[in-house]
Amino acid sequence: MTTSRNSPVGLTPVVQGDPAPTVKKPNPAPALSAGLLIAVLLVAANLRATLTGVGTLLPAIEQDTGLSASAGGVLSTLPLLVFAATSPFVGRASHRFGTTRLLVASLAVLSAGTVVRSLPSIACLFAGTVILSGAIAVGNVLLPTVIRTHVPGPKVHTVSALYVTVMGLVAALSSGISVPLADALPGTWHSALAWGVLVALAALAVWLPRLRGARAEGGAQSDGTHAPTPWRSWLAWQVSFFMGLQSLAFYTAVAWLPSILSKQGMSTTTAGWMLFYYQLVALITSMLLPLITRGRHDQRFVAAAGSLLVAGGFAILLLLPSLAVAACTLLGLGAGVCLVLALSFQSHRASGTSETTALAGMAQSIGYLVAAAGPLLLGILHDTTNSWTGALILLIALSLVMAAAGYGAGRDRHVHVSTVIRHHRRQ
């Protein structure tokens, strides 16, 4: 069920068992402090830092270990599968243990997983990827809820834009420096995979003091309620598919864009910096988009236009490979638009903090399950055909489907779910 933004029902969740809807008065968010902003942005920095460098290092990893393109696709797909498997359980875990405790635990696990992945063993490469991906999934789901709960309403849009910007900046930096680090450090690509632990430890150092006096927030709220996953809402499914298809395009580019460009004659180092350029354009776009769309609740045409830019970028790679800069520019513009919208939909299409956690859990579970097919399927297509043509045609088609999903998710509507009272609360 979906309700319009101005509908009283859309703003008033129903508590099961009550004879009539009751108004749920949200707790006013405290003033935004510099400490909270830094803590949020450090978590955001960790959501991509350990992932995006793998694509630029993949040729070296395959050459050193003998991994096939299909196995490389599995390595690139593992984080998305873990995201999909972990996301539905984050809301319940947050309700039981508290958002702060769960975030601190996830940062500690992320640090350990990053170290394990860098060890000189194929088993550690895959096991460490699974461990750190599970930790990132927690941050993916909880960060929109933390912002919705603790940031004053007028500043939510600004903080959301800042966290997307930091996430994109660190992702671009990781892509750009991974190959130079592998060339400069004694452990080659093993050492280059480990640099993200510095970002994780910095975030852990900032969040550890916040454990003092932390209480279980029940999905980031303390009123003892928990919103179920909105499986029956078509709007929630559109938000989820838009999240999935933009993630598929992003992670496919991160995993295979350097390989595609190398196949077309570009050097590995230059291809890595082209991936950096793609993410830099996406970063700048994500910074500017909130200024352009400020105050606009209906974002149908913006979401559709961003998706069409992505389709255009893949089409140029297919038809005019010599125009790689133009292709990466269009891909970056579309990725920046779609990423900001995909993340903001998870908050703006929900009617409260508990509902935000529920919608984010669904969107990221279904979304990353869709996205997981990208790197793996494209790797198999490349191995089968020894060409990127079929993969690029498929990406163009999926980008058009993303335009349709974004048009639906961009409607000015709320996903409506009933909240369930939870009597157990850990202090």
Topology:
Layout: E1 2-4, H1 8-11, H2 34-46, H3 53-65, H4 69-97, H5 99-117, H6 122-150, H7 153-184, H8 189-194, H9 197-207, E2 225-226, H10 234-263, H11 268-293, H12 300-319, H13 324-348, H14 353-385, H15 389-409, E3 413-415, E4 420-421
Antiparallel strand pairs: 1-3, 2-4
What portion of the residues fall into strands of 2 or more residues? under 5%
The major sheet is characterized as: 2 strands, antiparallel
Number of domains: 1
In round numbers, the mean pLDDT is 80
Instruction: Look up the CATH topology.
Output: Growth Hormone, Chain: A
Subcellular location: Cell membrane
Membrane topology: Multi-pass membrane protein
Protein name: MFS transporter
Main location: membrane
